[in-house]
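Q: I'm building a small set of examples for a reading group on sequence design. Run inverse folding on the following structure and report the sequence directly after it, with nothing in between.
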């Protein structure tokens, strides 16, 4: 068996095995004629990157359940040290693609940080993040939090209570430090959104000062996800915004309390995407389609039958080659519950969504929201017209590729027609399902920005670390 395993690790052997398998299938009666019409792959051996978070699940499931192999793909999944390394390796071609922060392809394409044209044709999930504070901060917040009829803290918890803690620390000459995973991460924008909704200024970026801490009441800085709990325990930060399992890890360790999930900040928000270099997508269009097909099937498997497969998914993700965290920690959120203060476990069935609600479709309006937050906090230094936002979204998000992959799966009988927004113009309907109730219309980003008390809008910009203009 070991000889076969070693032999199977060579590209030649894998291709031979695939050829034998294909030959065997010829003798079978296939239920759908399109099943036999495989894509002609330009490249069949791929290395895909990820960060050790539960929302990398579609990649792990596509590999473990044979969905990549069904498409003729031999995929190696490789964990990366941090988001910057991951992005750089996709741009350089060392990785064929990767599990990415939704803001990464957008940020790279507009030239914030690393300049490169990165695209996505697949949204990996909705929700999945949380904000955790230290035990000390939590105890200071609690007297300011309302309770429900059951005597438990009422949720969602707003940042107003944290403002009192931040103000008290500021009066004592102390800074309030929080961690997030990357400057263009969903976590950064969600944390900023939540803080600002409670009157806490999370600070601005400018071309001359990329700290993101200009005029800040709370100082946000980058901490890699797996290091969040240890950094909190050391007292370097007083809280953080991160994906799972690192909020639940704080509960298990007894070092912090998750106060809110991103589902409560923005209901069914887009979280991660599968990103590739645009040059790669143009060079290997059929391979790209094949990857998207496999990932769509993985998302479906993760959500089907009312999350019936999540227990198996937890066991897979707990493996050292994937997330490598305790299965109990991963299960806390992946199976539809979330533990806030220790012992306060509540049902959050949509904490992780991988397929329902058109979760995998790359909506232009999702890209526009991230662009609006980049503008709000100064990462986009100058005012841009609404048409610019639309153009950038279309440059990065590729729903046409997604729907082509979905149509192939539909023809093969592997998905249902109603699972996809075939007639969408790429924009979700306007929504006010945010923690502050402010309505967002992806076609009117500048009108949206005008609604915020804290944040850049109109022609405002940063000069000498001050907001100027109207």
């Amino acid at each position: 068996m070991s000889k076969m395993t070693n032999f199977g690790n060579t590209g030649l052997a894998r291709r031979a095995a695939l050829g034998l398998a294909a030959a065997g299938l010829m003798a079978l009666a296939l239920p759908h004629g399109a099943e036999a019409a495989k894509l002609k792959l330009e490249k069949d051996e791929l290395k895909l990157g990820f960060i050790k978070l539960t929302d990398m699940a579609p990649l792990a499931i596509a590999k473990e359940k044979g969905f990549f192999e069904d498409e003729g793909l031999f995929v190696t999944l490789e964990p990366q040290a941090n988001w910057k390394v991951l992005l750089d390796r996709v741009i350089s071609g060392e990785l064929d693609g990767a599990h990415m922060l939704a803001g990464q392809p957008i940020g790279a394409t507009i030239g914030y940080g690393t300049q490169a044209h990165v695209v996505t044709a697949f949204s990996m999930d909705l929700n999945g993040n949380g904000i955790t504070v230290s035990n000390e901060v939590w105890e200071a917040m609690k007297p300011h939090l309302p309770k429900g009829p059951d005597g438990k803290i009422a949720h969602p918890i707003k940042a107003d209570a944290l403002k009192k803690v931040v103000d008290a620390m500021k009066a004592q000459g102390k800074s309030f430090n929080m961690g997030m995973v990357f400057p263009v991460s969903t976590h950064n924008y969600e944390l900023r959104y939540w803080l600002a909704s409670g009157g806490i200024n999370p600070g601005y970026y400018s071309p001359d000062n990329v700290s993101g801490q200009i005029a800040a009441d709370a100082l946000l800085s980058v901490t890699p996800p797996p290091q969040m709990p240890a950094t909190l325990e050391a007292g370097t930060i007083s809280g953080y915004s991160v994906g799972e399992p690192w909020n639940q890890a704080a509960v298990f360790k007894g070092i912090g309390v998750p106060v809110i999930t991103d589902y409560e900040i923005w209901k069914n928000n887009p979280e991660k995407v599968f990103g590739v270099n645009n040059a790669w997508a143009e060079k290997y269009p059929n391979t790209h389609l094949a990857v998207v097909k496999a990932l769509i099937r993985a998302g479906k498997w993760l959500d089907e039958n009312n999350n019936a497969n999540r227990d198996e998914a937890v066991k897979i993700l707990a493996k050292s080659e994937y997330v490598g965290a305790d299965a109990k920690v991963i299960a806390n959120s992946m199976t539809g519950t979330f533990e806030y203060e220790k012992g306060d476990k509540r049902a959050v069935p949509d904490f992780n969504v991988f397929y329902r609600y058109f979760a995998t479709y790359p909506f232009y309006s999702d890209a526009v929201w991230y662009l609006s937050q980049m503008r709000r906090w100064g990462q986009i230094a100058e005012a841009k017209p609404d048409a610019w936002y639309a153009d950038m979204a279309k440059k990065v998000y590729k729903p046409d590729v997604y729907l082509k992959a979905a149509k192939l799966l539909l023809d093969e009988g592997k998905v249902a027609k109603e699972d996809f927004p075939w007639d969408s113009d790429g924009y979700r309907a306007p929504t006010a399902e945010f923690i502050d109730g402010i309505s967002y219309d992806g076609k009117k980003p500048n009108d949206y920005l005008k609604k915020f008390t804290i944040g850049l809008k109109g022609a405002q910009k940063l000069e000498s670390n001050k907001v100027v203009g109207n």
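The chain has two domains: 40-128+270-419, 129-269.
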